[in-house]
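The authors assume throughout that readers already know how a fold can be written as C-alpha cells. For illustration, here is how one protein appears when written out as sequence plus C-alpha cells.
>
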Amino acid sequence: MTGARSDEQRAGGTLSRVSSALVTLHKEQFGRGPTRARANFAGADTVVIGLDDVMLPAERVMVEMGDQQRVRESRAALQAATRDKFVAAVESIVGRKVVAFASAIDPDQGVVWEVFNLEPAAPQSGDGAAPRPLAL
C-alpha cells in the first residue's frame, strides 16, 4: 500500500506543477491567467488541464456580442503560435515526450482545456504489462 500511496503523491505533485506551469504560461502569453487550474490524468498517457476564468476583456465583449466563434478561432491561432512553449513545459515536468497537443475553449463559460497525449511509458515491471496511470 505504501508504494501505491507514494505513486499517488508523486502524481499529485506532478499534476500540481503542470497546473502551475500552464497558469504561468497563460499569464505570459495572453496577458492574463486563469483563476483556477486543475490537471488530471485521463488514462496512462493523457494529461488534461482545465483552466477557469481565462477570458480576456475583449473576448468577453465578443461573447456578449454573440461572436463566440471568433473567440474560438483567435484562441486556436494563439495556441498554435505558442504550442512549443506549452509542450516543452509539460515534457520537462512529466519527463515524457508529448506526441500530440490540443486546446479547446468554451467561450460562454470562459473555460479552456489543454490536452497532452504522451508517448507511452515503458512498462514498470518485467512482465510487459502497461504502466499504471499514476506511475511517473
